[in-house]
Design goal:
With 219 residues, the chain is mostly helical. The chain has nine helices and no strands.
Length: 219
């Protein structure tokens, strides 16, 4: 008869216990990040602190510190998490649209919609630029990298729209990107700082005006 071998039950317990511990650790870190992201949206990245997060999450300072190691790493983790959510909400859904102008329009309108929602809380990209524009270091580098990643995607969409014949052949992709980004900054400033009514509608009209100038003529 063939010999039947089996793994003792006790031998599987440490592995399972370790997997549960890792999963619980990931869940705890995600909960801390969620609280940190909410706090940073309201008070900025400089408003983040291990102690404040410990109070919000009901954890000890050492417990929060164990997941990030430093305030700087916490700030960078928040930036990466914000960027990941931005991509999931704005960038990736837009890629499902047809190449050219439909995709470009989807990218900008989703961006505009997100900023409109963030008027009461704040955009980490924009507030972070104010906080770290003249402060060299890893946090500023992380912010710059994430914003440039988004700009690269948007500029690529503009270039493809030009190649598809939807925009004029002489369209300067970087110039158009500059103008679109300017609309978003103006919206954030007027709606959040000045509390000007109708700012979202003005930003939308501004986008239509930009498209009208760059759109290729029929035929």
């Amino acid at each position: 008869m063939p010999t039947v071998t089996s793994t003792p039950l006790a031998a599987t317990r440490p592995a399972r216990s370790g997997a549960r511990a890792v999963h619980k650790g990931q869940q705890t870190r995600a909960s801390i990040l969620d609280a940190a992201l909410s706090l940073a949206s309201q008070k900025g990245l400089e408003g983040l602190s291990i102690g404040h997060l410990a109070d919000i999450t009901g954890m000890s300072k050492s417990g929060v510190f164990a997941h990030f190691g430093s305030r700087e790493e916490l700030q960078m983790s928040v930036i990466r998490e914000y960027h990941a959510r931005f991509e999931e909400e704005v960038f990736y859904p837009s890629l499902r649209e047809p190449r050219g102008l439909p995709r470009l329009e989807a990218m900008f309108r989703r961006w505009l919609a997100r900023v409109s929602i963030e008027i009461d809380s704040g955009c980490i990209y924009i507030s972070g630029a104010v906080e770290f524009d003249d402060r060299p270091g890893p946090v500023r580098d992380a912010l710059v990298d994430m914003v440039r990643t988004w700009h690269t995607g948007l500029e690529r969409a503009i270039t493809i729209a030009r190649e598809e014949g939807h925009l004029r052949a002489d369209t300067d992709a970087r110039q158009m990107l500059f103008e679109l980004h300017g609309l978003v900054l103006a919206l954030h400033h007027d709606a959040r700082f000045l509390r000007t009514p109708g700012s979202v509608q003005r930003a939308e009209q501004g986008f239509l005006n930009v498209l009208a100038r760059y759109r290729a003529l029929p035929g």
